[in-house]
Amino acid sequence: MKYIITVLIGCFFYPAILFSQANYKKGLVVNAQGDTLIGYINYREWDQNPKTFTFKKSLEEKDEKVFFPENTKYFSIENVEAYQQYAGRITNDKTELNDLSNGIDTSTVVGTFFLKVLQKGKNLALFSYTDNWKTRFFIQKKNDTTPQELFYRRFRIDKAIKTSRIYVGQLGIAAVPFYDNSPELKRKIASSEYVANDMIDIVSRINGLSVEEIKQAIKIRLSHRSFIGAGLNRAVMDVEGNITFAYNQQSKLSYFPKVVLGRDVFFNPNVQRFFLRGEASFTGGKYQFETEYRGYRLTQLNVSVAPQLIWNIYNKNNFKLYIGGGGMVNYSIYSNNESYLLILQTNGEKKMYQDSPYKFVPVWFSGVLRSGVSINNKVEIALLQTIKTPITNYTSFSWQTKATQLQVSYFLNNNSNK
To answer: CA nearest 338: which of 387, 298, 290?
Structure first.
């Protein structure tokens, strides 16, 4: 319980740590005057295009300069992302199913924005802009000075959902000079969806990339890693309700080895602030209760699958501190399930008599909280606390189990490249 309270308190206070923590990476800025500044850019977990960013010339420098789209022509984070200034109109309609307008919405917003560079080729450049409304794609021909938005709209008419795929025609016009070099290009454009991979595929063909280069261009950056691990499971069983053992409440502590394997998937592999973890493990417990006149023994072997959300609250290249949690699906096999009576004999000794054992469920659900550290993107040390959960179906009482686990894991591959 103390561990759970500590984690919950941490979840309340750590947002301040998250948003104050810097993540400076090598980069460059081209300011409004055309001057190129080399230094470090504070790279955040941008799920939307940034409205500002901070820059400093060296990691040791204290002063940070804030840049806006209005005073920045271009900026890039080395080997990560690049953004280009765009001054003009963007569409302002929504395309999510629950937010669709009644009738077509052609509203626009005028402003200066950072467009994310998806590809710059010999014939065409591709950009994207994501905000609270939607994601928009832009193209810019070789001799054009301003990107052009590719239009895609969804709306309702008499409860029916309508789609306007104007971008297909726009791409078709841009691709006319290149159809002979790519027979599939016209078909690709006609069948394309308004998503990044399809847009990158089409623009890559217009730019004359080879089949292998196209595969690399549309390939989502590897953002996962696998791990194996081992640890120690310290478990205890509680009894609550109208039952003799409830007076004793807890079994003796059980110590059992644990083995684990799993996979992490990062939301943003360049930052690695948040990630999903899928973890499968095997462990067990040997429990024993004993009162003055009764006793109980049980061995439990358990296989679990636990999807979790992990948050690196301190996030540096060689050291990370995280908290997280999730659910667990458990499958248990029980053995040595023995209930017995202790009868006092005339000679003063107690004799054991077998009694009817209880029934425990094979499949049960629970939760897990965890915290840990990752060192050099190779080794992780974690402390886990499973939430106390019933493993019986009786109405007047329940047998419940909980565990504290110490776990050491080794990352087999770290394709996140941070």
So the answer is: 298
